[in-house]
Amino acid sequence: MPGCCHYERDLVPSSAEPHGHHTAYIKKENEFYVRGNCASCKARIEKAAQAAGAESAEWSAEHQTVTLNFNPLHTSADKILKSIADAGHDNEKYKASDAVYKNLPGCCLYDRNFTFGEPNPTVHYEEETKHDGHNASQEQTIESHGQHEKKIEGVVVTGSKAATSLSKKEAGLVFNIDKKELLKAACCNLSESFETNATVDVSFSNAVTGTKQLKMLGLDQKYTSLTKEQLPEIRGLASAYGLNFIPGRWIESIQLTKGGSTVTNGYESITGQINTELLKNAKTPETSLNLFSDFNGRAEANITSVSPINDQWTQTFLLHGNGTFGNTDMNHDSFLDRPKGTQINAAYLLNYNDLEKSGFGSHFGINFIRDERTAGQIGFDKRLTQKEQYPYGVGIDISRFQVWNKTGYVFKGKPYQSIGWMNQYVYHQQDSFFGLRNYNGKQHTYYSNLIFESILGNTNHKYKAGASFLYDGYEETYLTNNFKRNEVVPGIFAEYTLTGVKYTLVAGARADFHNLAGTQFTPRINFKYDFTPQTILRLSAGRGFRTANVFAENQQYFASNRVINIMPNGGNIYGLKPEIAWNYGASLQQEFKLFGRKSTIIADFFRTDFQDQVLVDLDKSPQQLTFYNLEGKSFANSFQTQWDFTPFKNFDVRLAYKYYDVQADYIGGRREIPFMAKHRGFVNLAYSTDKNDKGGFWSFDTTLNWVGKQRLPDTTTNPAEFQLPAYSDSYAVLNAQISRNFNKKIRAYLGGENLTSYYQKNAIVDFRNPFGNYFDGGMVYAPIMKANFYVGLDVTF
C-alpha cells in the first residue's frame, strides 16, 4: 500500500488478547519461516523459490512465512529453502552466508537476532536439524508472559511485542506506542495517552477550563504536528480542546516522531509529529465495552466494534460518551477544578484491502462530535446570561464534523511503486464565553495530498513526489471584533531515500504557495548510521512554518482580566507574519544485554531557532496579553536521556532525565519562556504476573514525574497579595494502576492520579473578585487537583 496509507499491523491484533499477549502464529502445511523486510525481499524470495522449481510462492511480511506450491516429483521444500537462503534470506532450514546477506540492499538487511516485536519473529538457531517443512503436526506452542515459543525440530520461534518501541529502521527518531502502553493508565483521551511516556510533557493549561496541553522539545503543543490517520487533526480552532476529541479506547497505535518529520505530511511540523491510528484491524469480529468512573463525578463509556465484511472489506463502529457531574473544588476557592458537561463522539470507518490481487486499498472515515462544558464558580447557572447572575461562569460548546478518505494503488509487478491520494473535510464550530467575554469561531478545512512513490534503478534509491492543497476558512469573533480570513495553500514536494549497508539518508523539500504568507520553501533531512546493529546514530535538520491562531491557541488566558493587545508587524494574519523555525537534532541509541536481557539507552539533543515567532508576552503587564512578532533571537535547547531495561522477568523499568533551555528576546529583553521547567525526571515501573490456565494475570504500573522550578510571569505591579514569586517550587506527581485480566475477555482496573496530592493552592489570582482588575486563571504551573482515584471495566465480546 502507498506510504500515505500505511498503518500499524500487529502479528496478531493486540485486541485478540488482553495486555498484548499474542498467540504464536500457527503455520499451515507447505508454509515455512523466511526472514525479510520489504517488497524487494518479497520479490527476491518468490523469484528464488520459483527458480528452484516452485510453481508459485507467496511470502508474507506480516507472518514472515512463505507459502509454496510445488510438484514433489520435480523439486522439494529442502531444495527451495536452500535456494532462498542462497539469495540472502535466512529460513527455518538454511541460513544465508554472511557475504550474501551483507550484499543485500540496505532496506533488506533484516535483524538476524530475529525478534517478532520489531516487527518480525525472532528465530534462534539452536542446532542444524533436517526438516523438510511438512511436519507441522510436530509443532508445539509454549506460552509465557509477554512471550510465546514455538519449537520446530531445533528451531525456536519467540513472539513478543513491546508496548513502546523505537523503530531501528527509520532514519528519524520514531517511537511506536502500542495499545498495551495506553492500558497502563486511565487514558480517557489523547491528552492522557502519554502519562507513561517520557518524551511528551503533559500539563494543565489553566485553572478554569481544566484542559491539558502537550509539549515536546520544550515548546508548546502548537509546534507539534498532531495528525490522525496521517491527516491533519488538532490545529486551528481545535488547538485548545482537540486532545479531548480522540478517546483513548479508539486508539490502535500512536507514532511519535521527534524533530522534523517527512515533507510529505506538510510544512507545519517543527518539533515533531504525533500520529494516531484508529482501531480498524481484526481477523474475526470483535466488540468491546469500556466503562470508567472516577471518585469525583466523571464517568464515560466506550463501545468499539471491528469486523470483517468479507476478504477485502472491514468496518469499524466507534462510540464514546462522557460526563462530568460533580462539583470538584479541592482548593476551596469556589471555582470548579474541572468543568462539568458532556460529550458524544461517534465514528464509522470502512476499509478495503485488495492489494494482493488488484493492487487497490482504500480507507474511509466519518466522525461527529458534540461537546458542551460549563466551568467557573460553583452555583453558576448556564441557563442564565452572565449579566443576570453574580457567580463567574464559563461556557464552551463545540460541534465538529469530519469526513476523510485515503486510496492507494500498488502497480502490478512493481511492489515498490505506488500512488496514494488522501482527502479530508473538517467543519469545526465553537461558541464560548468567559465571564463577560465572548469568543466564537467557525472553521472549514479541506485538505488533499497526492503521493507517488517509486525507485531509481533499485530499492537502494527510492523517491516520493507529489502535490498537496490546503484550504482553511476562519470566522472568529472576540468581544465585538470580527476576524475573517481564508488561507489557500497549494504545494509540491519531493523526497529521496538512499539506503546503504549501514546508513539511510532521507532528504526532502517542499514549496508551498501561501496566499497570505507568500511562497515558503521547506527542506528537511534525516540521516541514520548503524555503527553496529546495536549502536545507531541519527542526525536531522529541517525547516517548518505555520500561521498563528492567536485567539484559539491562547484560550487558557481568556479566564482573566487581561486585555488582548496585538502589535501588527506588516503581516496578513492578524497583522502578524508567519512563524518560521529551524530544528536540528542528534541522537544515539545503544542496545546491550543486562541480566541477560535486552536493555536500551537513548540520548538525544535538539535545538530549535525561530524567525518571526509570534511571542505571547505575559510580562509586559499582568493586565495585558500581548502578541507580536519576534525581533531578535528565540531558541529552545532540549536534551533527553532514557534508559529502558528489564531487571527480571515481566518487570520493565524506564528512567529518563530532560533538560530544557528555552529563551526569547521579548520587548523588555531576553527572558526564559514561562511555565517551562529546566529539569525534569521520569520513572516508570511495570510488572505483570504470568498467565494462569484461563489466560488471567495481574498488571501493576506506576509512574513518577518530577518537575523542577519554572519561571512565572512578572506580576510585580500587582498589589502584594496578588503577586506571584519569580519561580515556582519543584514538585513530584505519582500515578499508579492495578489491573486484573480474569481471562481473554474481561479486564478490571483501579488507579490513582497525583497520589502525592501536590497541587497549586492559589491557582487563580484574586479568585474572590473574578470581575476585578487582578483576576487571572491562567497562571498554572502544577496540578490543580489533589489525589483522584478511578475504576474501570473492559469486556470483549
Automatic annotation (TrEMBL):
<feature type="domain" description="HMA">
    <location>
        <begin position="38"/>
        <end position="90"/>
    </location>
</feature>
<dbReference type="InterPro" id="IPR037066">
    <property type="entry name" value="Plug_dom_sf"/>
</dbReference>
<dbReference type="GO" id="GO:0046872">
    <property type="term" value="F:metal ion binding"/>
</dbReference>
<feature type="domain" description="TonB-dependent receptor-like beta-barrel">
    <location>
        <begin position="321"/>
        <end position="755"/>
    </location>
</feature>
<dbReference type="InterPro" id="IPR036163">
    <property type="entry name" value="HMA_dom_sf"/>
</dbReference>
<keyword id="KW-0472">Membrane</keyword>
<dbReference type="InterPro" id="IPR006121">
    <property type="entry name" value="HMA_dom"/>
</dbReference>
<dbReference type="InterPro" id="IPR000531">
    <property type="entry name" value="Beta-barrel_TonB"/>
</dbReference>
<protein>
    <submittedName>
        <fullName>TonB-dependent receptor</fullName>
    </submittedName>
</protein>
<dbReference type="GO" id="GO:0009279">
    <property type="term" value="C:cell outer membrane"/>
</dbReference>
<dbReference type="Pfam" id="PF00403">
    <property type="entry name" value="HMA"/>
</dbReference>
<keyword id="KW-0998">Cell outer membrane</keyword>
<keyword id="KW-0675">Receptor</keyword>
<dbReference type="InterPro" id="IPR036942">
    <property type="entry name" value="Beta-barrel_TonB_sf"/>
</dbReference>
<dbReference type="Pfam" id="PF00593">
    <property type="entry name" value="TonB_dep_Rec_b-barrel"/>
</dbReference>
